[in-house]
Specification:
The chain is mainly alpha-helical. The chain has four helices and no strands. Helix 1 runs antiparallel to helix 2 (33-98), helix 2 packs parallel to helix 4 (130-143) and helix 3 packs across helix 4. The protein is rod-shaped and about 100 Å long.
Length: 153
């Protein structure tokens, strides 16, 4: 268990334990108004703190699930864009073989830079959702064997 889980269980469990202890103590003797107020205040604070931590964790996990969902479609789009840059690059190389044109060198450099940007964006998504990105990349490579996703050209 990580630290946050221990804090959540401790805070909510502590609030419940305090409430049970208050009931047990009040069964043996009447509690003063000050004792009752302190017991309830401490129990309330512990319960609120545990609820806050639990809510924060749930929100973070929901956000990550949403990002993972978007990662799959974003990486598919990036791979398609990268594939089109790759095809354009090969076409430029074919033209360069026929006739050497310095303008095509400039265009080739731009195309290669755009392809590198797509690679970088895929790696950024991998930082967020590595499993999903790896799955999409492997599916892409199986369906497009002539344009591997990790080829840098």
């Amino acid at each position: 268990m990580d630290r946050t889980t221990v804090l959540i269980v401790g805070a909510i469990g502590g609030a419940i334990a305090l409430a049970v202890a208050m009931i047990i103590v009040s069964a043996f003797r009447p509690l003063s108004t000050l004792e009752t107020a302190l017991w309830q205040l401490i129990s309330l604070a512990a319960g609120l703190y545990g609820s806050y931590l639990l809510g924060r964790r749930a929100a973070r996990e929901a956000a990550m699930d949403l990002l993972r969902l978007h990662a799959r479609s974003a990486v598919r789009r990036l791979l398609a864009i990268r594939g089109s840059w790759h095809r354009l690059s090969h076409r430029i190389e074919e033209f360069q073989v026929e006739e050497r044109d310095p303008r095509l060198d400039v265009i080739q450099a731009i195309v290669e830079e755009r392809s590198t940007i797509a690679d970088s964006a895929i790696e950024d998504w991998r930082d967020v959702a590595a499993d999903e990105v790896d799955e999409v990349v492997s599916l892409w490579e199986r369906s497009n064997p002539s344009h591997p996703a990790d080829d840098n050209g």
